[in-house]
Structure formats: C-alpha cells, structure tokens
Amino acid sequence: MDEDYGRYRAVEELARGSFGVVYRALDLEMRRPVALKTLRSAEASRVARERFLREARTAAQLSHPNIVRILGTGERAGVPFYTMRLVEGKPLAGPLPPAEACRVMAAVARAVAHAHGRGVIHRDLKPANILVEDGEPVLTDFGTARSRGDLRLTETGELLGTPAYMAPELVRGEVKGADGQADVYSMGAILFELLTGRLPYDGASFLELSSKVLHDPPPELEGSDPALAAIVRRCLAKEPAERPTAAELARLLEGWAPLPRP
After folding, report:
1. Cα(194)–Cα(95) distance, rounded to whole angstroms?
2. Containing H/E element for 3?
3. Residue 197 CB neighbour total at 10 angstroms
4. Has 124 been annotated as catalytic?
5. What is the pLDDT of residues 205-249, one digit of tens each?
6. Which of 2, 4, 27, 124 is catalytic?
7. How far apart are alpha carbons 231 and 219 in whole angstroms?
8. Which of 89, 97, 182, 251 has the fewest CB atoms within 10 Å around its CB?
C-alpha cells in the first residue's frame, strides 16, 4: 500500500477500529519497523480528534515493559497520527493452564498498577487489547483511558469499554465516578475466560448481558483450586471496594500455588 507520513512509510494495515486504523510502518530515519495509528478520516469529529490525541498523550505518560511504548506524534494532511513500538504478537487467548494464566495476568496487573499509580485508568481491558509477544503480554489501546485531571469530553451516561468485560459501575453509566477498580473487574473477567474458555456472563443482547453483570452472583470456577477461585471471585465483586487493587491482584497471582490434593 505504501503511504508516506513524513519520516514514516505505512506498508500494511494491521487493525481497524471505530475511529482509528493501525498500520505496520517503516521509520525511514531510524530504519526500524513501527506501528502507526491515525484517524480513519479527515472528516472526523472534534470529539474523535480530541480522543485520539488524548490516547497518545495518556499512553506517553507510561513507561513499563508490559505497556506499548509511544514513540512520537505527527500530522498528515491535517490528520493526526502517532507511532508506537511494533508489537509482533497475537491477542491474548485461552484457555490456558492455571499457572500460565496467573503468570500472564500477574504481568498485566503489574502494568495496570503502573498506570493507576500515574493516574491513568484504561477502562477497556479485554484480550484484544493485550498482545502476547514472546510469551509476554503487552497492554495496548488507551482510546478510552482517562488521566487524572482530564477535561471530560463526555460525562455520566457514556458507555465505555466492551460490555462482556465491563464493570457493573460502567454498565450503570457511572463513568464520572469509576476508578481503577473497574480495570480490576475487567482483569477478573479476562482471567475467568483464560481459565475456562468462556466469559463469566453472556447474553443475546446488551440488555440481557448487563442484567446478569448487575444482578447475578459471580459464577463459580468449578473444579478449580479454591484459592484461585477466590481471587477471581473478588475481582468480579459487584462493589468496587470489595475488589483488590491492581497491585494486590498482581501479588495474589504471583503468590498463588495450587493446594495439594488430599
């Protein structure tokens, strides 16, 4: 396809979202491959442009081996873009053996704790946003993330995230008050899926799914180690205060070991 973005040349489309597209590109000055993300259209709304730029600024605040690194920003024909380290991996997928699921999610939790410590809440954690490269997870896509001190483009009532991994408070539309504990819920849903091959809640419609998220008790991890099941259950608690922090979740998963069978 070969399209020029100044010092970058986009050579292949990698992913496409609601308002952005990601390309594999070549940094002509540094002679290295990068990922380049740009808005899909020059006609994008002001809100879409602001969200796009906010994503780049938010992710650029973070420096962690399990978070994709932002390299630079630019503009082409009036359309903003930014470049990232190219992660040569595939989205996280399960089921995985319990020890491997815990190892991977402990690394994710450490990355999320790093973000939370800098006032950044991701708000759309899901397997598609966690790429696995050489066995290590790399957190990507901060398009719905919020930093402390952000001027909100929207307020309570906006639906943020992917419904199957969304915390009850976000399902209720409590965007303004949601904090890092919403990310912990999402990590619990991902861990449940990695262990079982299915989501904790499902439904034929958003209405059915949201009703289960809001009212049904967390499903049991049948046949799993009780200590691990308890960790997942805490993450999926309806009340944010009952969930561990991201840092605590990382410690719990790093310290987990199956109980000996009688």
Report:
1. 5
2. strand 3-5
3. 11
4. yes
5. 889 999 999 999 999 888 789 999 999 999 999 999 999 999 999
6. 124
7. 12
8. 97
